[in-house]
Design goal:
This protein has about 475 residues and is an all-alpha fold. It has 25 helices and two strands. It has two domains: about 210 residues, Orthogonal Bundle (Hypothetical protein af1432), CATH 1.10.3210; about 180 residues, Hypothetical protein af1432, CATH 1.10.3210.10. The two termini are about 25 Å apart.
């Protein structure tokens, strides 16, 4: 059996820290979550940096209100993670509206859902735009009859999922509850529970206002953001939070920072400094696992995909005698390699038929998105290139760079083999899951063409292990 390091064509898997003296002991949790929040912007169809900018607005409001330091700490992470459950309803949104979920979610942020006229115009303007008239009318009737319960279903799915993920990462209950209650309105007209007034956590009340302010600022500027917030005072928003927002909005600093290219750095300084949390290797593993859940929730056809790819990649790596530190990073790579798929509409991901050229071009961007997101996170940046290359082929016909042969590192070859094997053996909209035997036979046809022969052989050996069959 050939040791892994000796068969790497370029460089071995880069490890972020020496096990005896882990760099991650001084890695701030806020840096990781802030960088990964860019992935959440993708799944909501929002401009990059939305969550970061919302955090800037919300923390300024919280400070103006004189909130206790511990509450400000909870608010900080509620703002960054407010959209962490949003991928869980993407497929359902796409199904109900027969439309691009990313565009739909982005436009939905711009309406007052308590205004019947705005809500009606939104539904009519966005419902099944490319469908025959009869189908559109049928969907319109369905939404007219069941709209309220469907809205609650979508919000509940997103908020409960987000709260659960936040708790699993290790955040305190006020953060999870702040995410859970994000869409509650001051007058009780929100979802999922119709909570009102002071029964809504202060973290949720501030986050909802900050979110609306950022969306309208991005579209039309400060004046429109302020106008939209004031218009919803007493209905959507707590009047005292609106008052605090008006006070901070009167300063140019609030708005100027939203356009600053270094806003990420400034936002990190807003976390109460004596409450800054640092993570260890185990917590980084948990973050990777949790974001893998976010990725796989995007489509029913990818449920568990990232976790299985990580497992298959580790099985292959062990056949090469991979070291424990390398195994840890290979596992994280497998978990996060598809994070860029959050930027692809479910109308494409779940399409049963052949993709058109425009749809295929969007799919081919997902590894690019993965690389860009992971490159933002210093603790994950060493694997950004590998994640962005998992659709490359030895013959140069892969994407996005068209790398070939020795240009493709061995870790990428391992990941590609694991990724394709799981895609073949799983149900997808365009094919039912195939047997292990059939899947391996398909991959054999591309031995040394798409797949590294050593990796393919290592996969076969791992599948023959009694431990694998027992699992």
């Amino acid at each position: 059996m050939t040791p892994m390091a000796s068969i790497l064509p370029m460089t071995p898997l880069r490890v972020g820290a020496d096990e005896a003296n882990p760099l991650s002991q001084r890695m701030a949790l806020s840096e990781i979550i802030g960088a990964l929040s860019y992935a959440l912007d993708l799944t909501e169809g929002l401009p990059a940096g939305h969550c970061i900018r919302v955090c800037w607005i919300g923390m300024n409001i919280g400070t103006q209100m004189g909130l206790p330091v511990q509450t400000l700490s909870h608010l900080y992470y509620t703002l960054l993670l407010k959209d962490i459950g949003c991928s869980s309803n993407a497929a359902r949104v796409c199904e109900l509206y027969d439309s691009d979920d990313l565009q739909l979610k982005s436009r939905f942020r711009q309406i007052d859902t308590q205004s019947i006229s705005q809500l009606t115009r939104f539904v009519v303007g966005n419902l099944a735009p490319n469908a025959p008239l009869r189908k559109r009318v049928g969907k319109l009737v369905h939404l007219a009859i069941h709209g309220r319960e469907l809205a609650r279903e979508l919000v509940t799915s997103r908020c409960e999922r987000g709260a659960g993920i936040a708790a699993r990462i290790g955040f305190a209950m006020p953060v999870a509850d702040g995410i859970r209650r994000l869409d509650e309105h001051w007058n009780g007209g929100g979802n999922p529970g119709g909570a009102e007034g002071l029964d809504i956590p202060i973290e949720s009340r501030i986050a909802l206002l900050a979110q609306v302010a950022e969306v309208f600022h991005a579209i039309s500027g400060p004046e429109e953001a302020l106008e939209q917030v004031k218009r919803r005072s007493g209905t959507w928003f707590d009047p005292s939070v609106v008052q605090a927002f008006e006070q901070v909005a009167a300063t140019s600093d609030l708005w100027n920072m939203l356009k600053d290219s270094d806003i990420d750095t400034h936002v990190r300084t807003l976390e109460p400094q004596h409450l800054v949390q640092y993570v260890d290797e185990a917590q980084i593993d948990q973050i990777a696992q949790s974001f893998a859940d976010v990725i796989d929730s995007k489509s029913p056809f990818t449920n568990g995909h990232s976790h299985r790819v990580a497992d298959y990649a580790l099985d292959i790596g062990r056949q090469f005698g991979i070291k424990p530190a390398e195994a840890r990073w290979l596992n994280r790579l497998g978990l996060l390699h598809d994070i860029g798929k959050l930027g692809v509409s479910n109308s494409i991901l779940d399409k049963p038929g052949k993709l058109n050229d425009q749809e295929w071009a969007r799919v081919r961007l997902h590894p690019v998105f993965s690389e860009q997101i992971l490159d933002r996170v210093s603790v994950f940046s060493s694997m950004a290139f590998s994640a962005g290359s998992h659709h490359e082929r030895l013959d140069g016909k892969g994407y996005p760079r068209g790398l070939m042969g020795a240009e493709i590192p061995q870790v990428v070859r391992i990941l590609t083999t694991a990724d394709v094997f799981d895609a073949l053996t799983s149900d997808r909209p365009y094919h039912p899951g195939r047997s292990i035997t059939e899947s391996l036979a398909i991959m054999e046809k591309d031995r040394s063409v798409a797949f590294d022969p050593d990796c393919l052989d290592a996969l076969k050996r791992s599948l023959e292990c009694p431990a694998h069959h027992a699992a």
